[in-house]
């Protein structure tokens, strides 16, 4: 599978799943635009490292995905967008009657609204190029719910709905739009929660992972960022040209329960 000549923009891609997807797209030959809201030397160094490793062009463009105008500017500044991966996302856990309004607003803005803005800005570029792939990173929480995650579950269900609508609007064009729904993935963010959880439950690392973190993941294994990257590359392949408006779960059986 070669994505040589295609340019992929991956939002929220200086760590975790976004970076894993960017790496697999670069491995498949795509030029890549990395993004986050920071503008540190290490962000640009990451782009240079990926470019060197895979022999593709990689740029880092700073843009805050909580702001609609910056989402649209990210696409405009990139100048070309064959593959759009809407990945940037945050979480906050709280009962709904205590949910801080600013956390609700930030989650809806970053996890849902940003994809509206980037998609609206990228579609004309895909139409001009005569080819496009939109891959939205939803979650098992785009298909099921958990208590205390009202904003996240609402945003992820929202992005699954938007995925279907965009797919219908582009159905007769060589453009597809799908959502990947990961279960628990061992990203730095999740790794950082392990020591506290071990202390809270007085358990060892393996016990915390299997009994607490992966309670709802029947495989009792984390999904990996490489597996998510591979799924994104598949959705960009010719084999996936008739796959549109749907979700692919990478969740170790979570949503089969
Ligand atoms: P992460 O914290 O490692 O990565 C999130 C990325 O988004 C980072 O690059 C961060 O810099 C970026 N980001 C955050 N706020 C931003 C903003 N305002 N503007 C631009 N970029 C911003 O987390 P992750 O686990 O890799 O999550 C990535 C996506 O995968 C999210 O949408 C998340 O909801 C989804 N997801 C994660 C898991 C999991 O278990 N880790 C499971 C299902 C879905």
From TrEMBL:
<dbReference type="InterPro" id="IPR011294">
    <property type="entry name" value="3-OHbutyrate_DH"/>
</dbReference>
<dbReference type="GO" id="GO:0032787">
    <property type="term" value="P:monocarboxylic acid metabolic process"/>
</dbReference>
<dbReference type="InterPro" id="IPR036291">
    <property type="entry name" value="NAD(P)-bd_dom_sf"/>
</dbReference>
<dbReference type="GO" id="GO:0003858">
    <property type="term" value="F:3-hydroxybutyrate dehydrogenase activity"/>
</dbReference>
<dbReference type="Pfam" id="PF13561">
    <property type="entry name" value="adh_short_C2"/>
</dbReference>
<dbReference type="InterPro" id="IPR002347">
    <property type="entry name" value="SDR_fam"/>
</dbReference>
<dbReference type="InterPro" id="IPR050259">
    <property type="entry name" value="SDR"/>
</dbReference>
<protein>
    <submittedName>
        <fullName>3-hydroxybutyrate dehydrogenase</fullName>
    </submittedName>
</protein>
<dbReference type="InterPro" id="IPR020904">
    <property type="entry name" value="Sc_DH/Rdtase_CS"/>
</dbReference>
<comment type="similarity">
    <text>Belongs to the short-chain dehydrogenases/reductases (SDR) family.</text>
</comment>
